[in-house]
């Protein structure tokens, strides 16, 4: 059997969007992914069909030994599989990537290296620290504070480094931070040199502590900062108050609960992270085929009989697309129909199918969509197909029917609620989030039902954010008052409203 290939991929630190295009592409082709503790979990979304194996090393915890990881790479590739080794930062920058590559070379296993943005290069700008500056720093040294096992730590080498470079960035140095800072001062670096520690850089959990060099270790101990962290020493640290941007955003550090199926939540989670917040995805419901797929199958086979096909969700679009493909049809099957979508996200879900919506509701609710469709078809009685959830609001088809339209509603999918164990996990999770984001009436209903008798109490302890008036009305009917409601009924509109509310609360 021909051996497979191993891709040593740099994940970058923190923000999952920092992975390179080449890294994301390599992940998408992997059969197996071995990932580190410091690679963001969202990066595994690039490899949805691969087997995911956690080989992360965590200080103080039992972790897979390096020899075991290397042997796994060889064995998996020897079986003909494409293996992705996802490493935090860059594979060859203070990492074991070179050792793994040497072992693969010795074993005759083909490998590729995809460089990544290393942690000191990425976390410093997220902390508002420029490593170089025309007036303050023309040289940078990256150094590890963790020596190879069996090698004695040398204070003298740190003394020599003290004045040899303008900016010093120390990786894996938290365990020896007191000894390192003391040695740098002993080597001639001024005691009042600006210094900083960046913990969990480029994530919503990022913490940055600034202090003069001689008090940095003490301040870090008082604040309880630990690994993963980088230490920065140099005059450039003094610019942080002018250059910081990531941790000045209104939602920085907020933990936002997204109660949606993982596939649907990806774009929402990315939008949340873009606002410097942490996305906590918890699937309240599962999207499955309806008990009887016959009506959808029949409707798709007879699309020429309809004047309009109306989509009320991206889920409906996906299930409709699956049925088109099953019947070996494509966008041409809709050639005699006009297509309507309840909002831009639903319309966007149609584009990969080669379908552009003829009508997108001005306001993203069923009542508005019905009115807009009837205006577009004034003076006639259109035949309308609505492929949607098995259980859904009746306002849209009812309004159309009362106005003379011939409406056929077919179930394209069904939503299933949580089991008892997951309900308990949700209640515990609620105690650690700041915002609960509701993007539909179904998520509101499912979540409140899942939380049971504790729903109102738990939701009072967080900011309840609603995507629009329909979802807000559902929340109120269930005894929960929304704290924030979007003016534009989209994810971005909801995040805009959350930012505005947060800024107002701080005034």
What does the secondary structure layout of this molecule look like, with pairings?
Layout (H helix, E strand, L loop, with lengths): L5 E5 L10 H8 L3 E4 L15 E4 L11 H13 L4 E5 L9 H10 L4 E4 L4 H8 L13 E5 L10 H7 L5 E5 L5 H10 L7 E6 L7 E6 L3 H8 L5 E5 L6 H4 L11 E4 L3 H13 L3 E4 L4 E3 L5 H8 L6 E4 L2 H13 L11 E4 L2 H7 L8 E2 L5 H11 L6 E7 L5 H8 L3 E11 L3 H11 L4 E4 L2 H11 L3 H6 L2 E4 L2 H9 L6 E2 L5 H16 L1
Parallel strand pairs: 1-4, 1-5, 2-3, 2-4, 6-7, 11-12, 11-19, 14-15, 14-17, 15-16, 17-18, 19-20, 20-21
Antiparallel strand pairs: 7-10, 8-9, 8-10, 13-18
Tell me what the structure shows.
With 507 residues, this protein is of the alpha/beta class. It has four domains: 6-117, Tetrapyrrole methylase, N-terminal domain (Cobalt-precorrin-4 Transmethylase, domain 1), CATH 3.40.1010.10; 121-248, Tetrapyrrole methylase, C-terminal domain (Methyltransferase, Cobalt-precorrin-4 Transmethylase, Domain 2, 2-Layer Sandwich); 255-285 and 417-506, Rossmann fold; 288-415, 3-Layer(aba) Sandwich (Rossmann fold), CATH 3.40.50. The chain is 36% helix and 19% strand. The strands form four sheets. The chain has a six-stranded mixed β-sheet, sandwiched between helices. Strands 3-2-4-1-5 form a five-stranded parallel β-sheet, with helices on both faces. The protein has a five-stranded mixed β-sheet with strand order 6-7-10-8-9, sandwiched between helices. It is globular and about 90 Å long.
């Amino acid at each position: 059997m021909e051996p497979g290939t191993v891709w040593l991929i740099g994940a970058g630190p923190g923000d999952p969007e920092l992975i390179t295009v080449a890294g994301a592409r390599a992940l998408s082709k992997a059969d197996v992914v071995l990932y580190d503790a410091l690679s963001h979990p969202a990066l595994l979304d690039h490899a949805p069909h691969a087997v995911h194996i956690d080989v992360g090393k965590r200080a103080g915890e039992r972790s897979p030994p390096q020899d075991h990881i290397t042997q796994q790479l060889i064995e998996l590739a020897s079986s003909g599989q494409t293996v992705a080794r996802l490493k935090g930062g860059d594979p060859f920058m203070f990492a074991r990537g070179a050792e793994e590559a040497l072992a693969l070379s010795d074993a005759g296993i083909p490998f590729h290296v995809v460089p990544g943005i290393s942690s000191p290069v990425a976390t410093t700008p997220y902390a508002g620290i420029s490593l170089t500056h025309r007036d303050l720093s023309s040289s940078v040294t990256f150094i590890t504070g963790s020596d190879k096992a069996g090698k004695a730590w040398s204070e003298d080498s740190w003394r020599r480094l003290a004045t040899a470079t303008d900016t010093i960035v120390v990786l894996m140095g938290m365990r020896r931070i007191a000894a390192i800072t003391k040695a740098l001062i002993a080597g001639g670096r001024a005691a009042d040199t600006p210094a900083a520690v960046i913990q969990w850089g480029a994530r919503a959990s990022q913490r940055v502590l600034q202090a003069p060099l001689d008090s940095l270790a003490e301040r870090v101990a008082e604040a309880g900062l630990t690994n993963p962290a980088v230490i920065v020493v140099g005059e450039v640290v003094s610019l942080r108050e002018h250059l910081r941007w990531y941790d000045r955003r209104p939602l920085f550090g907020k933990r936002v609960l997204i109660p949606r199926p993982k596939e649907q939540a990806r774009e929402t989670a990315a939008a949340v992270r873009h606002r410097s917040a942490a996305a906590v995805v918890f699937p309240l419901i599962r999207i499955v085929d309806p008990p009887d797929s016959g009506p959808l199958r029949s409707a798709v086979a007879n699309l020429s009989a309809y004047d309009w096909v109306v989509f009320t969700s991206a889920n409906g679009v996906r299930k409709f697309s699956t049925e088109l493909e099953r019947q070996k049809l494509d966008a041409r099957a809709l050639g005699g129909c006009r297509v309507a979508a309840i909002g831009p996200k639903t319309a966007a879900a149609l584009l990969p199918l080669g379908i552009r919506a003829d009508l997108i509701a001005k306001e993203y609710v069923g009542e508005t969509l019905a009115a807009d469709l009837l205006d577009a078809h004034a003076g006639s009685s259109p035949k309308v197909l609505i492929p949607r959830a098995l259980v859904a609001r009746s306002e849209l088809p009812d309004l159309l029917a009362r106005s003379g339209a011939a409406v056929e509603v077919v179930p394209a999918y069904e939503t299933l609620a949580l089991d008892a164990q997951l309900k308990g996990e949700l209640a515990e999770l609620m105690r650690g989030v700041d915002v609960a984001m509701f993007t539909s009436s179904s998520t509101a209903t499912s979540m409140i039902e899942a939380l049971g008798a504790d729903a109102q109490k738990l939701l009072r302890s967080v900011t309840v954010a609603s995507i629009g008036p329909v979802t807000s009305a559902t929340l109120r009917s269930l005894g929960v008052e929304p704290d924030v409601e979007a003016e534009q009924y989209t994810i971005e509109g909801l995040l805009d409203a959350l930012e505005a509310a947060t800024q107002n609360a701080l005034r």
